[in-house]
Design brief:
This protein has 10 helices and 10 strands. The chain has about 270 residues and is α/β, with parallel strands linked by helices. A hairpin with a 2-residue loop joins strand 4 and strand 5.
Length: about 270
């Protein structure tokens, strides 16, 4: 099937063209094409082993692609370091929650703003009035973000003591503190209960409303169908469908990829 699939109309901030990667003899991704539109939530879904996280790792140059290109706001970012990509405004999270041990929940969130601190190192060392004002602004923003996801009451707790689901929410909040232009979330709902998933959905909508685009890999189809503006479906490393949530749900190839896989596993 051709991979020139339907894309949303509008301004593309991320464009992935012909992205391919082999590990040994296994082709993890095979000519993947899709785009992410400005001020939107795009979901990347597919059965286990479809290549979703590999695509994330290729976009952020954790792995170099064998073929294909990634353009962010028109800039080809192949060969850029993950830090340079983050400084451009493309910030990601990982499947496993990563919190800073030894820091409180509030401090973990505040760390997300570190790369954007304007006061000089010398000013911070001397705790200048400018540094104090900036610290208070960051603290206020961090508390507001924690309130959105219901974690404000844990602000003084050690981050490593939070349940895994809460740590996942904390990682998303910390990433948002970095003022991304595109936020890439790798299975943010993994380990969340129903209440936490609802809080995550509210947070994703708030992030989009603030003008930040989102690319999310997710297995929770209820979350995807409730928040995604555009859905891209991978199977065996290839894009097999793309469109609105309703369009993707009705697509015969998508139904076969999911239900066929489940039936084979049950056999």
């Amino acid at each position: 099937m051709s991979q020139d699939l339907k894309q949303p109309n509008g301004t593309d901030i991320l464009r992935v063209d012909g992205l391919s990667k082999k590990f040994g003899g296994l082709k993890a991704t095979d000519g993947v094409n899709f785009s992410v539109q400005e001020n939107s939530i795009t979901a990347l879904i597919g059965p286990n082993g479809a290549g979703k996280t590999t695509v994330f790792n290729l976009i952020t140059n954790i792995f170099p692609p064998d073929e294909g290109t990634v353009a962010f706001f028109g800039k080809q970012i192949a060969g850029w370091s993950p830090m340079d990509i983050a400084n451009l405004g493309l910030i990601r999270t990982f499947q496993s929650a990563r919190v800073f041990p030894g820091l409180t929940v509030l401090e973990n969130v505040m760390v997300g703003r570190h790369r954007l601190i304007k006061s000089s190192d010398f000013g911070q060392m001397l705790w200048s009035p400018e540094s104090r004002r900036e610290e208070m602004r960051i603290r206020s923003q961090a508390l507001a973000m924690l309130k959105i996801v219901g974690l404000e009451r844990f602000k003084d707790a050690h981050a490593v003591d939070l349940p895994m689901g809460a740590q996942k929410l904390l990682e998303v909040v910390r990433a948002v503190m970095g003022s991304p232009r595109l936020l890439c979330l790798d299975e943010p709902a993994a380990g969340l209960n129903d209440t936490e998933t609802e809080e995550l959905a509210a947070l994703l909508r708030a992030i989009r409303a603030a003008g930040i685009s989102i690319l999310v890999v997710e297995h929770n189809m209820s979350l995807v169908m409730n928040v995604a503006d555009h859905v891209v479906v991978l199977d065996a490393g290839r894009v097999i469908a793309a469109g609105s949530a309703a369009e993707v749900q009705r697509n015969p190839q998508v139904i076969e990829a999911y239900l066929g896989r489940e039936q084979n596993a049950a056999a």
